[in-house]
Amino acid sequence: MNINNDFEEYLLNLVSVNEVELYRIIKYQLGWEDEGGNKIENLNPKNRKFSNLALSISKIFGDDISKSFPFAASVEILASSWYVHGDVQSGITDRFGRPSVWWKWGPAQSINTGDGLHALARLSLLKSDSLSNEALLKALSIFDNSYLMLCEGENLDINYQESPIVKINELLDMMEKRPGSLYGCCFQLGYLSMNSNSFNDNDLGKLNKIGTLFGLLEELQEQNSILIEENLEPEVFHRFASKKKNIFTSFILEDSDPSIKRAIGEIYFKRVLEEPDLDIIKKTISENKNYLDFYNKLINKFKNEIENLINNLEFDKEIKSKLKILSSNET
Fold it and tell me: Which pLDDT score is estimated for 331?
């Protein structure tokens, strides 16, 4: 994943409002500085997952991607707002390989920083001087609807945390909203940035669905990585440890005999899950001959849905081809 230096300069200027400490914390969250305010030379590319996607989408539809900087900045800052609030909510102490804002500055400053990031994300859309009033209202509508869907997903995720059983379809619906809504936002804003005078609501709707499924695939693959990777990122393991539901537990609780369901259920009655609990679940999954086939079919199903949606877009073949390449490379 490459870092766009021109975009970095734009984003840094956007959040450098004044000398209030809020903006130093924001610079820390966005990866430019350490907790002492010292510059970090090598930015973690994971800090730019959503903006890089939005920039990649815009490049498919036009050459001057600087037009998309306000849009890409908006969705990246919105994602950071979500991360900061989520770290407080779930007690996550590490984010992108270093202490989370909550862990360094405490819950009060972290909540305030998340709110400030949300305001900056929305204001970023107003920085574009090339938008008609209609396009600006559309961009704000996409932003607000995406965030509202994200909040719906968070609500479901929190409710499911203590539920003994979450059905697969319920879990997938939650994942489409959390984090699928942010990916849908990337696809829509990337397109809108290059088609502000000629956008099509039908195409925007399809791109939103493509992005949502794209995000769903990313989430499924991250959850499955819990089973196969030895050194999990702290925030990934923390979601498991805090009993947030995932695709493999939902499957095993639907597909196994009562004794296995009871054993897994007893694990999830614990307050916090630990490494030995994960080992038991890994062993249970490995002994289930149906899970891998189920998982692969699910991944292929959503990949095929994305391809079909791209085929039905009213764009020329070159654009469709680039969208397919992007989707296949990223997922």
Answer: 65
